[in-house]
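Quick one, tokens below. Sequence please?
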């Protein structure tokens, strides 16, 4: 399958180029990537949607380059394009603000700079078209003079981005910090109608890789073979990690002496806020008929008849609580800015989202005062095994 060996989008450092129309942004993106990634034209507003390009930027490694629509676009359609550009800021790990060297920074660029500072996003101002006559640039710490036409400043821009972005990169681990060399972790992966043909889903792939990097061993089995797998081991595993959908079944099989958690819970710690989403599950019992619940997924996929987000979780909530909430669903890049009408947000593990994008969504929930939880946490709570499922994280377990 094409792309199976590529670094997932959510694990790449996202470097986004922002600027006014005709500031030379797309030309600079093409020079930066060494490819004709973006269409270049003298016509304002040529870039109408964010354009993504995966590449390697040494010494950082895999990155995602994003070209965005002009932040000074006009009209109703232009407003939508600006919104798309600003949405990219929520997932940006490093911002390059492209400005015409012949012009002073405008209101739009200054606003963008302020947003980057408030969100603590590292940034550089890339003054473009510096091969043409222009007034002297006032000395600033975070700027580079560039020219896509002559190549001036392109190497320096790459070097500075790599240095500045590299120092801000996260040292997060999915599970490796909980394992020692020689440990064994059992991963329970059911193969049902929702399982993709011929491959494992992203959180499962990432967890296996993280286990191997720790020097531990990963044993993979279905829930139907779990009991036999445990019996074959002469030494109990360090932990069992299960797909959330078979939490209840797996919990009955795994002895209490062996720590049990789920891929979704590990992803909540990896990219989100495990204490926050754990606390969010405790509010479920207060839900009433007609309460609006948002179920959000970071990816888009073809829904199967037993889809966890649209079928299994709503069905289990109805069964356990005896109520009929008003479920709403979003997926992919769509996530409401206004959550004031919701009583609860239930989010997937966010494996396809960047850490910054996941954090942004949690911030929206917190600012709106709306409890938020995730698939694995909620399923563990509804099955009465939440405390056991977070035993690996004593600080979180102490909250229950």
């Amino acid at each position: 399958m094409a792309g199976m060996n590529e670094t997932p989008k959510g694990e790449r450092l996202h470097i986004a180029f922002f600027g006014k129309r005709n500031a030379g942004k797309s030309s600079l993106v093409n020079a930066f990537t060494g490819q004709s990634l973006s269409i270049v034209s003298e016509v304002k507003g040529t870039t109408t949607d964010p354009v993504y390009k995966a590449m390697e930027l040494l010494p950082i490694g895999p990155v995602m380059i994003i070209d965005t629509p002009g932040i000074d676009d006009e009209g109703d359609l232009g407003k939508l394009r600006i919104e798309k550009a600003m949405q990219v800021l929520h997932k940006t790990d490093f911002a390059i603000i492209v400005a015409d060297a012949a012009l002073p920074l405008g209101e739009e660029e200054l606003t963008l700079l302020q947003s980057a500072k408030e969100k603590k996003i590292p940034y550089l101002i890339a003054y473009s078209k510096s091969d043409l006559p222009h007034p002297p640039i006032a000395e600033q710490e975070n700027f580079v003079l560039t020219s896509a036409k002559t190549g001036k400043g392109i190497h320096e821009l790459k070097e500075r981005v790599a240095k500045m972005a590299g120092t801000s990169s996260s040292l997060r681990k999915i599970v490796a910090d909980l394992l020692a060399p020689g440990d064994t972790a059992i991963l329970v992966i059911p193969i049902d109608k929702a399982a993709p043909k011929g491959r494992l889903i992203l959180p499962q792939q990432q967890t296996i890789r993280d286990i191997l990097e720790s020097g531990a061993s990963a044993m993979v089995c279905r829930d139907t073979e779990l009991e036999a797998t445990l019996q074959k081991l002469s030494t109990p595993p360090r932990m069992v990690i299960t797909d959330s959908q078979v939490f209840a079944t797996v919990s009955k099989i795994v002895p209490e002496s062996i720590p049990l958690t789920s891929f979704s819970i590990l992803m909540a710690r990896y990219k989100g806020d495990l204490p926050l989403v754990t606390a969010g599950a405790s509010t479920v019992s207060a839900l009433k008929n007609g309460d609006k619940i948002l179920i959000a997924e970071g990816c888009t996929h073809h829904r199967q008849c037993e889809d966890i987000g649209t079928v299994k979780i709503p069905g289990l909530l109805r069964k356990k609580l005896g109520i009929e909430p008003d479920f709403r669903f979003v997926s992919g890049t769509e996530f409401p800015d206004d959550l004031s009408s919701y009583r609860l947000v239930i989010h997937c593990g966010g494996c396809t989202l960047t850490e910054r994008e996941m954090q942004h969504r949690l911030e929206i929930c917190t600012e709106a005062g709306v409890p938020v939880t995730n698939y694995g946490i909620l399923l563990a709570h509804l099955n009465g095994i939440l405390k056991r499922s977070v035993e690996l994280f004593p600080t979180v377990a102490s909250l229950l």
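The domain at 176-266 is CATH 3.40.50.11420 (Rossmann fold). The radius of gyration is 24 Å.
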